[in-house]
């Protein structure tokens, strides 16, 4: 009898396959990075064909490492980097252009043009989102305007669009031989084209962006059987689909109104469950879908999205060569007692929540001759914590609920110096679960729920176990003084691009 659930976790820098048992324990994992392509400043691309290749490799690798066959899996779920847009040819299965990544800023002029009538928030009441380069819809329009013949093919349904979940499900379920073209409500809610109330593509917005409905995937629940897999997972139901941050909400079992989690990855994403009501933000947050289980009512979240957190550590490693591996940042930062008066605002692709300033760029403020590599490393880590504090303040204001504690996950939560500083800056306990990679776990949970491997969400709650918690230690007046300097540094990043 099949006793495990698989999850494809397709992230910004790598793809992994993880296998979980009934208690949520990891029994197998394989992971491979893919190339980050930077054709121009502010442009970020991925080769979707390479990502598909990596996906097939890690599925095989994960099964081999666990000593399992595909038939040992009850189902497979998918979670993915959101907002990264892929257009591919239905006949050949090949992408018509590199995928435009969520960090990519090339659609800034399209967004500015759309904002001339009604401002940056003209679509917010329907989509919960501001007009920003972050989202997928304007990326489709950019490809139409820059790659000949694609718009016409899309109108005929011969070129398909999706975030990477749609592309991978289509490939996994047969591709050119009967592949299923679907997405889920969470991914659809990140395109700037889905209506939050109807959970369907909005015809007025499609018309505004010039996107034909024929190229769009069908919007489904986050937990239901979409298709049977072929190839590496032959015959296994594909039964879960969630954008990565919503998958982490699921994996952290934030199923009650007021429960929140923060994921520390390439960027940071703080999501608060607001229940079956879409709460419109007045403080620069996004209103987004949290998840939808089968035919149950959809659950909404408020989200604070921060573009650059873990990516800043990678930048220190790859561009400045100040460390050889990401975990070394903690040791370097611990070599000094404080930041030496130095603040790093990593607005590499503009500022996301709560500012939404696409024309901001990164700054290092407060430099003196005293500042050394250790101070810079500490400023890099502190930037993640300060950005998260700004989002928490916006969330408290929007929801009217004061945060009591914060569940955390993602790669950076192994950095204990950062986790302690996060508890200090927020003034609440920060709690790390036993399984820190909750994104893949959430996708597995969704797939397992859809296929009866887990009967109800209460079964998932019982799996959640605390690994470690950090209590605030820093004096409040010291925290507030530092925060004032951080806010001052942020203002120096504004209006950089003319």
Q: How would you portray this structure in words?
A:
It is a single chain. The chain is an alpha+beta fold and 498 residues long. 33% of the residues lie in helices and 22% in strands. The chain contains 16 helices and 23 strands. The protein has helices at 48-66, 108-115, 124-127, 137-146, 150-155, 164-172, 185-188, 203-209, 244-251, 310-318, 328-333, 373-399, 416-426, 438-450, 457-463, 476-491, and strands at 4-10, 14-20, 26-33, 45-46, 73-80, 86-89, 99-100, 159-162, 182-184, 194-195, 200-201, 218-220, 223-228, 237-243, 260-264, 268-275, 286-291, 299-306, 343-345, 363-365, 406-409, 430-433, 466-470. The strands form 7 sheets. Strands 17-18-16-15-21-22-23 form a 7-stranded mixed β-sheet. Helix 12 packs across helix 13 (416-426). The longest helix is centred in the last third of the chain and has 27 residues, at 373-399. The protein is globular, with a radius of gyration of 21 Å. 55% of the residues are buried. The model has no long low-confidence stretch (mean pLDDT 93).
Name its key features.
498 residues, alpha+beta, seven-stranded mixed β-sheet, six-stranded mixed β-sheet, 16 helices, 33% helix
Brief account:
It contains 16 helices and 23 strands. The protein has helices at residues 48-66, 108-115, 124-127, 137-146, 150-155, 164-172, 185-188, 203-209, 244-251, 310-318, 328-333, 373-399, 416-426, 438-450, 457-463, 476-491; strands at 4-10, 14-20, 26-33, 45-46, 73-80, 86-89, 99-100, 159-162, 182-184, 194-195, 200-201, 218-220, 223-228, 237-243, 260-264, 268-275, 286-291, 299-306, 343-345, 363-365, 406-409, 430-433, 466-470.
